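Morning!

This is the sequence you dropped in the shared folder:
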Amino acid sequence: MKKQILSLAVVSTLSLGSLLSPLSINQATAASISEMQKQKNELKNQRSGINAEINEKKSQIGELQNEQQALNDQIKKLDFAVNDAEEKIAAKNAEIAQTTEEIELLKGEIAELVKRIDQRNELLKDKARSLQENGSTVNYIDVLLGANSFSDFIDRVSAVTTIVQADKGILEQHARDKEELETKQQEVETKLNNLKEMKKDLEALTVKLNAQIKQKNELMSTLKHEEEQMHAEAMEMEEEAKLLKEQEAAMVQAIELEKKRQAEKARQAELERQRKAAAAAAAKSSGGSSSTPDPEPVVSEPPSSGGMIIMPASGRVTSGIGQRWGTFHAGVDIANRGANVPIYAAADGVVIRSYYSSSYGNAIFVAHSINGQTWTTVYAHMSNRQVSNGQVVSRGQRIGTMGNTGQSYGQHLHFELHKGSWNASKSNAVNPAAYW
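The structure's back. Tokens below.
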């Protein structure tokens, strides 16, 4: 679309150049007012179409921004969930640490229980050996029968009962201690295992949530990149719409100038008719002399010096047109180390555009109509520009100063000559050196 717009812009501006350039009026036929009006309407229609595309692009940008907002809300919720999980993991770590401390304390208690159980085991083993060797019943009977008196018998019965109960207590305590030991060990191991499982689940959840956050952040990055691209496209469209509007205004001016030119042509024709009529009347009144008047001298235009265009700057051509560093170099580079080196218009024409470009730096595009052929010249990397859009320039007129702006490496002028309109692919570029 940009190529079409620029091509139409050049053609429309050329109409103005053909009208205003004294050297081109006799070399090219000016477009009719109806044709110029048609071009103006085409510009207007294209501008309307671009404005519609701009509105559509802005609508798409709005949709992208809504998606980003919704995605951002989801990311916030995930961040909250991750923070919550991390807090729970920290709490579980604290519980695990506390339980580990309890286990250490329990180990001491267990060690004490084991010691007591071992001691009772030894005592029980001793009693078992004694019982096995002597027999429990006989021994107790001998003790009782060996009493010297009834009172001694009662004392011995009481002693035997105490011993038997003590042995029973030892066995019961032994059983309780073993049961308590097993219970405590089971409780602590179960609690620790549960805590570890909960921590494991929380860590797995954290990994999952972080993966979701990463995925959504990548999506957010993609959406932002798309938005940036759409903003760039919208800005480019707005620039195209602006260019079309400028060309539409230039076409209105060209139509008015064409009307004036045709009116002046009609006036000159009428004056010529009146002059010839007066001359005929004078010849008739002089008696019809048959003498032939001397022919009017033919005034020839002075021969043009040089080629079709002039070299736009003094200096040395350091790089010609053609393939260079893997790309097509569409013009010639003219270098000059001097200060304030002037740049001249290569031929009569109209400034299509005078602006700053990130690649061309300070650049000027000029449209020319030479011998009925449309040409476009480009002057780039200048330090300053001295003409503006729509301005009529003359061959040899200073339009700027050599510089080093944009994508440039050293002071020089990058100069392009296009046979026809300029286009982004630069398919119309020719060697300027062949024409100066």
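Headline: Confidence is low (pLDDT under 50) at residues 1-31, 294-305.

More detail when I'm at my desk.
O.
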